[in-house]
Structure formats: C-alpha cells, structure tokens
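Exercise 7.
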Amino acid sequence: MRVVSLHAPAVPGLGSVEADYLPAGFVAVLAPDGRVRRGLHAALSGDAGPDASLVTSPRSPDPGLARIPDDLAHRLRTGRGLTDLQAVVEAGTRALAWVGGLDRVEAARERLDRVRGAPSAAGGPPEALLARIRGLEGAPAEAAALEEELRRRRGDDVEVAGDLEQATMDWLRERQDAETRLQAYRDRARELKARLAQMEEGEADTPCPTCGRPLADHFEAVRETLRDEWESVVQDGSWWRRRREQLEGKPESLQELESRALQLHAAARELEDQAQAARARSDELEELQARLAARLGAGADDRNPTVPDAVARAVDDALAEAGRQIADQARRRLLDRSAAHLLRLTEGRLLGIRWTGVGRAELVGPEVDLPMPPDEDAAAAQLATRLAAVELLWEDAGLNDAALVVGDPFDRLEEAAKVRAAELLSERAGHGLVQVLLVTRGEVVDRVPEAFDGLLELRVESGGGVLRPVAAGTGVIRLRA
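Solution. The predicted structure, written as tokens, is:
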C-alpha cells in the first residue's frame, strides 16, 4: 500500500506539510531536524491527526490483512509503536501466525470457552435460540459477498489511484517545465539587458560579441538586433510567467479525479464496516450452533447442559498446542529471513537473531551471542526484521502492494551500514516492495545517489513545509573516446 500524496496540517515542530506526489520505488525524504523527521514519519504513516489526508494506492487495506488484530500489518509497515527488536519480532510472529491459521485456532478456543462455561447461554429457551439461528442463517453468505465486493472495490481504488498518479505527474512535469523555461528566459533577458547597457557605455568602441573587434559602423544594427531580441525574450517570458501562475494550483480535472478517489475511498470504508459486521454475525451463528449442539447432546432435562470439562480441557489443550506450533513456525520463518538481511547489513559480523527460552531476542555473532547489543546493532536488527516481516506477510496474503516507511532506526546505523542498508532497500524495492519511504538526514544520499528512485526535500515556506522533488541519481554520464 504505497503513499501517493500527503496533506498534514499539524506536524509537530513544523506546522502543515504538503506533498503533491510521492513516487514509487526507493524514495528518500530529507529533513535535517530530528523532531521534524519524527513528525514526517508519523504523517507518512497516517498518524498525523484526524485532519490529515493521506492518499494511498490502494485506498483501503486488503480484507485479509485488515483482520489481523492490533493493527499489526500497519504497525509493521510503518514501524509505529515498535520501539525495540523484541516488539518487532513479537508483532511479526503474531501477524504471520494469524495469516497462517492462528485466527481459526483462536476463534475455535473462544467458541469452546463460551460453550463450556455459560449456563445462561445454553440454558435459555430453545425456541429463542433457534429463532436467533434462523435470523443469522444468511450471515456467512452475506460476509463472503461483501468481502468479494470489497476486493473489487480495492481494484477500482488501484485503477483510480493510477489515473490520479499519472495526472499528478503530468501536472507536476508541466509546472516544472514552465518554471524552468521562465527562469531561462529571465536569465537571457538579464544577459541581453547587460549587453545593451555595455553598448550604451562603449558606443562604437564596443567589441563584437562574436569576433571581439570594435563594432564601429555596425553598432546601431547590432544594438537594434539585441533590443529586438530582448523585447522578444521579455514577451515570451511574460507568457511563461502567466503559464506558471496557471499551473500553480491543481487543474480542475485533477481536483475532480482526487474527489472521485476520495469518494471511492469513503465507499470502500463503509463497505469494510459492513463486511466486518457481517463477519461478526457469522461468528455468532457458529457459536449459537455449537451451543445448540451441546444442549441437544446433553439432553433436554439436563439443568446445566455444557461440554464435559474433561473433553473441553483436552480440546482446549490440543488447540493451544496447535496455536503454539503455528507461532513457532512463523517465528522461524521470520528469523530466517531476518538473518539473511542482517548478515548483509553487518557484512557477516552478525549472523542472525535467536529467540531464547524465556521469550527474548538475542543477536547471534560468529563467536558470542549479544543479549545487550550496541545501539547500532539493535537498529540494524530492527530494520532487518521489519523488512522480513513485511515481505513475508504480504507474500503469505498473496498481495503485491507491500510498502515500508523507515525512520529512526536507519539514522542510528553507522555510516558504512547506512550505505549497505540503502543498497538493500533499493534492491528490495525493485523485487517485491512497491515503495520504501526513507525519512532521513540525507548524508547517505550523497554517498550512494544511484540507489534512490526519488528524492523529496522538505522546503520550509510560509505556514509550513512542502516536500519538493529534487534531482537524484548519477546524472548524465559522458563517455570519451
């Protein structure tokens, strides 16, 4: 889920921040002040307050990821609330386990708990229970239909977001072209005006701009030619100035496209709420059916028709063990992928992450484990694990719109590790991630500019700041024979 544009009216330490367009790929967002960088990280993560507007593609999350508890998919993608390696490993493990079947295990345990220990639920009038079950019979089909419609709506979101992105790029390109041309005409006008002033001072002794000899009899002709050219340049410059002013605000067609995208987003959010309510009714139906089965199995005259304790404990233990196995497998996959990234970030100085028997994460070196690693190593492990968690989670969900927002851990790396991290993130942005937004001071951009697909620099203007694109990459390489 990549970020396309941003409007945040209240970023701490800065005020409002605008970003008309954020490109795909590996993008550096540059800001020198630490507090401002934290504010930008929050804004790009969608945590800049109720009045902020963050346009993403697609606009709404996939229903499968939205069902993961505690908003873990979003937290892993943005790093918000995951302050240390321990938290990242636990969040990544639970999210992967949930997609891998832990959701069904925990739902079964909840239903079992409700059935085994709720005499009031099982001991009520059977007619009321049957009536409620009949009223909920259509819930599973309704939930499935709403989720399918939500997936189609996400497809529409992606299509409109693509149109919006292309229109925004065209507008920004035209605006930049107008600015460049206007500046070129202004430079040429100043140059011609200076030459005319020089001619007025030197008159016939003024040297020819081409051959360097005095103009003599050609003075008037050359002056007239330069004056005509200056008037033409001023006239053309005035046209480009008006053109730049026209392009300063968003075109009406682009505003209409943004409005349509917002309407689609609102409709998708409403549909998501409906799907969630239908899923809740479907879960209630399963629970009531289980209660009815327990009641019928215990006999109509039983005063406390519950699942026998011995059976319930055995089933609960089996479900708990199944959940532990799913979580253990998810953790192993996460740590294996993290080790590959960490090995590269540290050039083999760290081999991976070990999960201890008491539920702690320790870094593994060639000769010794590091229960209390240095800050630089902890930051590298945190970045490697978040990257691994997002990649695996989106792969398991069958999605191809994984994205990452990276902030503080990157700036805590040592300089050589920052270069390796930039190269790794650039590579992953080209093979799986649609967008990586790196909020940083910017020294690494000077060292490996070729790693970045885009550069946005925070420029402070009246009332706030604007993220403006600046040149990135190696530039034009000229080969000599």
